[in-house]
Design goal:
single chain, about 200 residues, mainly alpha, about 0% strand, globular
């Protein structure tokens, strides 16, 4: 990834992360939990969503540590209270999936524009938007806390698997770091396959 592409990617992934978080809060609000709205987080104004570590410092460190192979950012998580949701089992799942779905819709919309327009100077920029949002979607669906995919995993686990939940809640972040640095290549084919599918 050259410097110009990296700059575009960094500029794109932060707004995409903010929209991702907004989607969590919006769906939670629709399902009965107004916490994000009361906290002033149901906005696409980036200022309430920026996290110094997750939005600015971590992406730069990941880019350096992985020699440009991987960059990821997240916005400040939107607060929500799952106990306010009308559906206590599946409500958290829908809230969790809202973020990745928002990224998919962004990727699909820009991919459609890319397909319909003739190739020109902004085509590569549009392609980076598509790729960044697909990457955010797929990565967040990995079932490791605190990623969104863990909400679906928890809903599918039987009640008897409470020790699995305890283990993941306690060690999830360390497992996630291991995944990022040593196992990310497992999901790269999925990211690239979806990218090719959308952009043609």
């Amino acid at each position: 990834m050259d410097f110009v592409s990296l700059l575009f990617y960094f500029v794109i992934i932060i707004p995409s992360s903010i929209i991702h978080e907004y989607a969590h809060g919006w769906v939670a609000d629709m399902l009965g939990d107004p916490t994000a709205r009361y906290a002033g987080r149901l906005t696409i104004d980036p200022r309430p969503h920026i996290d110094l570590w997750g939005t600015l410092l971590m992406p730069l460190l990941l880019f350096i540590a992985t020699s440009g192979r991987f960059i990821f950012a997240y916005a400040k998580p939107v607060p929500y209270n799952p106990y306010n949701l009308k559906d206590q089992k599946w409500g958290p799942v829908w809230v969790g999936l809202a973020g990745p779905m928002a990224n998919f819709l962004l990727a699909a919309a820009f991919a459609l524009v890319l397909r319909l327009m003739p190739y020109n100077a902004i085509s590569e920029f549009l392609a980076i938007i598509v790729y960044a949002n697909i990457m955010l979607m797929v990565f967040n669906l990995v079932p490791i806390p605190p990623l969104d995919g863990s909400k679906l995993l928890y809903a599918l686990l039987p009640d008897s698997a409470y020790k699995v939940r305890q283990f993941l809640n306690q060690y999830g972040f360390m497992i996630l770091l291991f995944f990022v640095f040593f196992m990310f290549e497992l999901i790269r084919p999925i990211i690239e396959g979806l990218f090719k599918l959308l952009v043609g």
